[in-house]
Amino acid sequence: MNFSRIILEWYHVNKRLLPWRKTHDPYLIWLSEIMLQQTRVAQGIPYYLKFVEAFPKVQDLAGAPEEQVLKLWQGLGYYSRARNLHATAKIISEKYNGRFPNTYKELLKLKGIGDYTASAIASICFNLPEAVVDGNVYRVLARYYGVDLPINSSEGILYFKELAKKVMDVTNIRDYNQGIMEFGALQCTPKSPECGICPLRESCVAFATNNIDGLPVKIKKNKVRNRYFNYLVLVDENKQTLLQQRKGSGIWQNLYQFPLLETEKYIEQAEVAQNLGEYITLEEPSEIYLYNENKIVHKLSHQHLHTRFWIITFDSNLENGIQIAELHKYPVPVLIADFIKTFKI
C-alpha cells in the first residue's frame, strides 16, 4: 500500500475549508501555525480572522503596540506565542524588508519558530520537501507503523522525523503535509478513531494488533503544581480600581491583573486584611468580602491556580485608579477577563 498516495487521495476528498488554505502567503501561514499550537482549529479561526483584519501585513503587526497584540490574543493562552509573534514580525520587517526567508534553515532562526513551524512554512509556502511532524502526524505514524518509542523522548523525536521524511510525497509536499495533519485531526483521532472506514487500516499495525489506544506512547508529564491566587480587587468611592502589569518570565508576562497575593493555601478575610499594607497606603478599607463563594480552579499545563477574588472597598480615592467600566480595554488572562464580565458594584 502506498501510504502517501492514500493520504493525498483522502485529503482531496475530506479536507476542511479553512481560511488559511486559500493562500500560500508565508505571513498568513505563519500566523495560522503559531495560533494553532496548543489551540483547537475551531477556537483558532475567530482569532486568526481578527488578527488578519487588524494586521493585514507583517509590517502592520510589527508596528502595533504590544498591548494591542496581547489584547487580541486574550483567551488563546500560552501568551509567549503572542510575544514571539510580535518580536518576529519586527525582525521580518526590519531585517528582511517584510519578506519571509524562504528556506527551512533561515526560518528556524526566527524567534518562536521551531522544526514543525519552519517545515510547515517551507513546504506550504515555498513547496520545499520538508516533513512536518506535529501531534497528529506522530499519532498517524506511530499507529500505522506500530512505533512504540515515546514521542516526547529525544530518540523518539529523531526517529519520527526521519520516518516522516522517508514516507512524505515530495512531488506534492504542500497537500501531503496538510493531508497527513488533517488525517490525524479528523480520521485517526486520539480517541475513538474511525478505523472501520479508514483507508489505511489494511496495513495499519496498531489496528492489526488491537493497540490503537496504546499508541502513540508518551512519557508522563511532570507533577502538577498547586498555587493559591488571591486577587485584591480594590474599589474606591468613584468606582475605580487598580491593575498591575505582570513582569518577569512566568505565566502571563506583560498582561494585566489585580494586585495579587499568592499564598500556600486558601486564606480567609483576616489574613487578606493583614497583607493589604503591601499594596496600598490608603486608610482602612470600609469592607472586605469574598466575591466567588464557589471555588475557581484554573488549570494550566503544569499548574492549577486555586483562585479567589476579594473585593476591598474604600471611602477615599485610589491613586492611579482605573474606572471599572474601562477594565475591558486591558489585555488580561482569561481567568480575570471572566471575572470582569460578571463583576458589578
TrEMBL record:
Organism: Arenibacter arenosicollis
The name this protein goes by in its record: Adenine DNA glycosylase
Membrane-spanning parts: none
Cofactor note: Binds 1 [4Fe-4S] cluster.
UniProt similarity note: Belongs to the Nth/MutY family.
Functional note: Adenine glycosylase active on G-A mispairs. MutY also corrects error-prone DNA synthesis past GO lesions which are due to the oxidatively damaged form of guanine: 7,8-dihydro-8-oxoguanine (8-oxo-dGTP).
Cofactor(s) recorded in Swiss-Prot or TrEMBL: [4Fe-4S] cluster
Key words of the record: 4Fe-4S, DNA damage, DNA repair, Glycosidase, Hydrolase, Iron, Iron-sulfur, Metal-binding
Gene3D superfamilies the UniProt entry points to: Helix-hairpin-Helix base-excision DNA repair enzymes (C-terminal), Hypothetical protein, domain 2, Nucleoside Triphosphate Pyrophosphohydrolase
InterPro entries xref list: A/G_AdeGlyc_MutY (IPR005760), DNA_glycosylase (IPR011257), Endonuclease3_FeS-loop_motif (IPR003651), HhH-GPD_domain (IPR003265), HhH_base_excis_C (IPR023170), HhH_motif (IPR000445), MIG/MutY (IPR044298), MutY_C (IPR029119)
